[in-house]
Amino acid sequence: MIISSVHSNYSKKKRGFTLVEVMIAAGIITIGLGSAFYAIQLLGKGSQSVVTYSEMNQQTRKLLSYLGRDTRNAYDITIANEHMLQLMDEDDFPITYEFDSDTEELTRTSDGEEITLLADVQYCRFRYFTFRLDETSRPVEVKHIQLQASIERPILSLTTSDDIVTARFMMRNHAVSN
To answer: Domains in the chain: how many in total?
Structure first.
């Protein structure tokens, strides 16, 4: 008789979880999985942001390399406005830098070959200075060139941006009127 009463108590304890216990466990698991998903999503955004920033940085370095070399070696400047710069090299061939606000691209054209140096450009402006560092818009007076630009790229719900303000590139071979 003692054995049967022990056996019946043992079978009552082994029946399973109550509905409340199952609901609490499901809630805890949901919170844990939601937190893990959010953390993975943040890691993905962060790594994509780093990759995008690296690409923008590489584009900027390429632009500065071309612009620095072209302005130092230019013998003349034929167009000097906010969105376009046209230099003439020693063989009298034009090298053109142009910002197109519709396509949001800054391009370089030389020998009929056009390459995109910057994409997703929100703002771009060329500034020109005389030998005495006064701002000018007359090509005959230009001795220094400066570029200001801003690039923005959306990544999921984030935006990665890069602001560029170049040093003033001196046109070594360009004779100026002042």
So the answer is: 1
Residue of 70, 71, 69, 58 whose CA lies nearest to 164? 58
Range of the domain at 96: 18-170
Phi–psi pair at 153, nearest 5 degrees: -130, 125
Q: Are 36 and 30 in contact (CB under 8 A)?
A: no
Quick one: pLDDT band at residue 170, thresholds 50, 70, 90? confident
**CA quadruple 26, 27, 28, 31: dihedral sign:** positive
Q: Is the pTM of this model over 0.85?
A: no
Q: How close are the terminal C-alpha atoms of the chain, in Å? A: 119
Is residue 39 one of the residues assigned to a domain?
yes
Say yes or no to pLDDT of 127 above 90.
Answer: yes
